[in-house]
Write a structure and sequence with these properties.
Nucleoside Triphosphate Pyrophosphohydrolase; 193 residues; seven-stranded mixed sheet
Length: 193
């Protein structure tokens, strides 16, 4: 068995879940619909495309965390990228679904054990990676949203330089173009607008 076939077999449950979730997802606009179709096309031609050990471009899952009022967003200052992002990363063979991967990443990177993302994605984002990310060249991110439990205290993980709350209308410099649409979609999906 080839390495690619072995990876595809190990991640078959996540590949099937990604195809199901993306096949049923109602994109909020034409640009997101175009990405949804591109993700499905990618999955159809890459059975190992949900794994970091698969092709240099692969699916990832992330979780944007808002406070209960929808006025602040919790972001991580990523150690490798040296930029502020929502929580997220690669799917792992032990994840049962895209949603479970987003929940795991959100909990691990924020230190908030009670995070429960919405069941459906709020946004898709395909981006090329800048910097030293080894084999990884492009992420096809499936983004979920969650509200932090009242009084939850974030903890900075080893993957981050910092974890901090930011006002939704004053996001960190250099992130607004990417994160503002995600924050808006998350606030709407969570009923916080």
């Amino acid at each position: 068995m080839t390495r690619a076939a072995e990876v595809a077999r190990s991640f078959a449950h996540l590949h099937a879940d990604a195809a199901r979730v993306l096949g049923a997802w109602s994109a909020p606009d034409a640009g997101q619909e175009q990405l949804r179709r591109a993700y499905l096309s990618f999955l159809a031609s890459h059975p190992e495309g949900v794994a970091k050990a698969g092709p240099p471009e692969h699916l990832t899952a992330s979780c944007l965390v808002l406070d209960t009022a929808g006025e602040r967003v919790l972001l991580t200052h990523h150690r490798r990228a040296r930029q502020w992002f929502q929580f997220g990363g690669h799917l792992e063979v032990g994840d049962t679904s895209l949603w479970a991967a987003a929940r795991r990443e959100g909990r691990e990177e924020s230190g908030i054990a009670g995070l429960e993302p919405l069941p459906d994605p709020v946004q898709l984002d395909r981006h090329v990676l800048d910097g030293d990310f080894g084999h990884c060249r492009e992420h096809l991110d499936v983004r979920f949203a969650a509200v932090a439990p009242e009084g939850a205290e974030p903890v900075t993980s080893e993957e981050s330089l910092d974890v901090r709350w930011w006002p939704v209308d004053a996001l960190p410099e250099g992130t607004r173009a990417e994160l503002s649409p995600l924050v808006e979609l998350a606030r709407r999906a969570l009923g916080l607008l």
